[in-house]
Amino acid sequence: MSVRKLKPITPGQRFRVVNSFDTITTDKPERSLIAPKKSSGGRNSQGKMTMRYTGGGHKKRYRIIDFKRAKTGVNAEVLTIEYDPNRSAFISLVQYTDGEKAYIVAPNGLQVGQTIVSGENAAPEIGNALPLSKIPLGTVISCIELRPGQGAVIARSAGTFAQLMARDGKYATIKMPSGETRLILLTCMATIGAVSNSDHQLIVSGKAGRSRWLGRRPRTRPVAMNPVDHPMGGGEGRSSGGHPRSRKGLPAKGYRTRSKVNPSNKYIVERRKK
C-alpha cells in the first residue's frame, strides 16, 4: 500500500494526497452481497434534523460483511481485494469450498488466491479467525468480538490492531488500539493480523468538495456563533470563545464523561492515556 501526491495543476490538487489502490484487484462488487443504503441526511422519522453537518454525498450500496466468521472448519479462497465506500478498510471476497461467498474485512498482507479458515483448529496465520484461547500470546489481532457470537466490534477500521497480552482464567488481556488494556472472554473470536489500508491516515482531501462527496456538510465554528446558539459564541470582536466546551456545556479537551459506576469498569485493567 502506498499513497500518491498529485501535481498541483489545479488548486484542488495542490495539496491532494490519494491512495494508490495498488492492492485493489477489482472495482465490481459481488451482486449477491450488496444491499441498498438509504441516506437520512441527518433527519429522523419526523423529518427533523437531529444530526448537524450531515447530508448529500455520493450514492452508495452497502456491502454485507461477515463479522462473525461463524463458518468454522471450512476452507475459503480469497478471490478479490476491494474498496468499500462504507468503511476506511479494504474488504475481501472469499469463496468457501461449498460454493458460498462472503465479504470479510481484509487484514494487511492478505493475497488473492490465499486460503483462510476460521475455528479452534485454524493455524494462527494472516486472515484466519480463532478464539482468543487458541491464539499465541503477543500476536497482533484485529476484528475482535466483545461478547461471544456478537461479531467483530473492536479494531475494524483501517490500519488498526490490538495485541493479545496474557490469559488468566476465562479472560484474555487485550491491549486495545486506544492504548487501553481490557479483559475479554477467551471464547470471543479474533482475526490474525492488522487491518488493511494503513495509509488511510495519510490521505489529504485537497478541497471542500471531496468532503461533500462523503456526505459531510460545512461545520460552523462555535466561536462564530451567537451566545444563544453555543456557550462559546458571542463576544465583542474576535473573542477566543472562553473555556472549550460542547453545545450542551460539557467541558471538552480531556473532560471525562464515562460513568464511575459503569458495569464494564471491572473489565478495564488500565485506562487509555489522555
Commentary on this structure:
- The protein has 274 residues and is mostly beta strands.
- It has a single domain, classed as Nucleic acid-binding proteins (OB fold (Dihydrolipoamide Acetyltransferase, E2P)).
- 2% of the residues lie in helices and 24% in strands.
- The strands form five sheets. A seven-stranded antiparallel sheet has the order 9-16-10-13-14-15-17, with no helix packed on it. A four-stranded antiparallel sheet has the order 7-6-5-8, with no helix packed on it. Strands 1-2 form a two-stranded antiparallel sheet.
- Strand 11 and strand 12 (152-154) form a beta hairpin.
- The longest helix has 6 residues, at 208-213.
- The protein is globular and about 70 Å long.
- The mean pLDDT is 95.
How would the blueprint of this fold be written?
Blueprint: E1 3-5, E2 17-19, E3 34-36, E4 61-63, E5 76-82, E6 91-96, E7 101-105, E8 115-116, E9 129-131, E10 140-142, E11 144-145, E12 152-154, E13 162-168, E14 171-175, E15 181-185, E16 189-192, H1 208-213, E17 268-270
User: Helix fraction?
Assistant: under 10%
Q: Measure the end-to-end span.
A: 30 Å
Mean pLDDT: 95
**Sheet with the most strands, sense and barrel status:** 7 strands, antiparallel
Distinct helical segment count: 1
Kindly report the oligomeric state of this protein: single chain
Widest sheet: strand order?
Answer: 9-16-10-13-14-15-17
**Tell me, what's the shape?**
globular
Proportion of β residues? 15-25%
Q: Write the CATH fold name.
A: OB fold (Dihydrolipoamide Acetyltransferase, E2P)
CATH class: Mainly Beta
